[in-house]
Amino acid sequence: MVLPESQPTGPIDQVVTSGTFSLDGGTWAVMNNVWIIGDEKEVIVIDASHDVETIAEGIADRRVVAVICTHGHNDHVNQGPALADRFDAPILLNLAEAPLWMMTHPDRKPDRELSDGDVFRVGGISLRAIVTPGHSPGSTCLYAQDLGTVFSGDTLFKGGPGVTGRSFSSFDSIIDSISDRLLTLPGDTVVRTGHGVSTTVGTELPHLGDWILRGRGTPGLRRR
Ligand SMILES: [Fe+2]
């Protein structure tokens, strides 16, 4: 489904796709946000989830500079190779996500490593990689300062951090990442998430202490 307000013209187009997330023997139905950043000529796709045809509709006839994966959970990467092949684009993923990636794509590696501080330019927009371990070891957010937005993957949502109750995750790490690297961005920065609705840094910042209290008593905060 391409959202009506998000015709494929840039600078930010949102596509929502549905499928499942599986890890540690469980499977859950999920809807994922796929973010397409750029202009009318070229784009970067953040996460390739569930439905390559729907994502391709959102891209339209634009060139895909890169497919950047915020992390290696299957719901965020399951269409990565198909999308990359269709648009002749490289797949980028942080190296620490390799064990998760391999669960979905054992015979295909990402094309390039995604590292902290990497800057990608597309359609006059700069995206800077901010590595935010916790939800997974190499979870990575993309910050577009010019657009006043950060694409947070499954690290930060409206209402709290992503889940840390499953393999390869760490609650203490995600809290450090959020407090040190995301909530230090300007308060009006729009947080565009991997699932669900957007929020802002200023909306979430006052609740950090509550999340820490809540999270220390539960194995995970969200089913993602
Ligand atoms: Fe995830």
Structure description:
The protein is 23% helix and 32% strand. It is built from seven helices and 14 strands. It has helices at residues 52-59, 74-77, 80-87, 98-104, 171-182, 201-204, 208-216; strands at residues 12-23, 26-38, 42-46, 63-68, 91-93, 112-113, 119-122, 125-131, 140-144, 149-153, 156-157, 160-161, 190-193, 199-200. Strand 3 (42-46), helix 1 and strand 4 form a beta-alpha-beta unit. It is globular. The two termini are 21 Å apart. Residues 219-224 have low confidence and may be disordered.
The gist of it:
The protein is of the alpha/beta class.
Topology:
Elements: E1 12-23, E2 26-38, E3 42-46, H1 52-59, E4 63-68, H2 74-77, H3 80-87, E5 91-93, H4 98-104, E6 112-113, E7 119-122, E8 125-131, E9 140-144, E10 149-153, E11 156-157, E12 160-161, H5 171-182, E13 190-193, E14 199-200, H6 201-204, H7 208-216
Parallel strand pairs: 3-4, 4-5, 5-6, 10-13
Antiparallel strand pairs: 1-2, 2-3, 7-8, 8-9, 9-10, 11-12, 13-14
This protein binds fe (ii) ion.
Fe (ii) ion (FE2) binds at residues 71, 73, 135, 154, 224.
Ligand inventory reads: fe (ii) ion
Largest sheet: 6 strands, mixed
What structural class is derived from the secondary structure elements?
Answer: alpha/beta
Q: Alpha-carbon distance between the termini?
A: 21 Å
- Any idea how many domains? 1
CATH T-level topology? Metallo-beta-lactamase, Chain A
Q: Based on the coordinates given, report the CATH architecture.
A: 4-Layer Sandwich
Instruction: Report the principal-axis shape.
Output: globular
Count the DSSP helices.
7
Parts with pLDDT < 50 across at least 5 consecutive residues: 219-224
- Compressed to H and E, one letter per element, the order equals EEEHEHHEHEEEEEEEHEEHH
Secondary structure tally: strands: 14
Strand order of the largest sheet: 1-2-3-4-5-6
| Residue share in helix | 10-25%
The whole-angstrom Rg is: 16 Å
CATH superfamily: Ribonuclease Z/Hydroxyacylglutathione hydrolase-like
Mean pLDDT rating:
94
What top-tier CATH class fits best?
A: Alpha Beta
Strand content: 25-35%
